[in-house]
Amino acid sequence: MKSPTQLPFADDRILLNLAAYWSARRNGQVLPQRSDIDPLDMPRRLLPHLALAEPAGGSDGAIRFRLVGTELVQRIGRDATGKTSADVMQGGYRAYVEGLYAAVIAKARPLYAETTRQWPKEGSSRVRRLLLPVGDGHGGVGYVLTAQSYSPGWTEQGETPRPRQHLIATEALEKGVLQATLRGLLGE
């Protein structure tokens, strides 16, 4: 059972490693800047699960994907790199994803989200996302660095769990990263 101070993804090495990377790249700043983020410096196991996105610039809330990892490409069935959320998503799912990114951009805080998704071959799986703000060099959020992980066949007592999400204070995220480091949960 997790303690009230423990991160909701304390058991997820992919999300923990991204949180640790982001935290280290802040270098004492409120947010890391885009120049601080280099996918080649990240743990290799993280790269397939990453996305880097920015606001697309329109009034519709669309985001543009600058980087999409191979695991995400495989899951959605196409490479969304360079495309907007309007190009690759539709309906309620598009609104949900854009809402996650909008919250991170507006609040300049990390966000954890969890939902269940049906896949044609695997059935249901738990989808966990960690979205992290990256500075634009002018005091705002210009990008969102995201990792997603999947747990196949996940349901609670035969029912599909409701999506949940919440913003995480940077201090709480860093405390959780420290706890994970001390427990030996980070690394390749």
UniProtKB/TrEMBL annotation:
Pfam families cross-referenced by the UniProt entry: PAS_5
Name under which the protein is recorded: PAS domain-containing protein
UniProt organism field: Ferrovibrio xuzhouensis
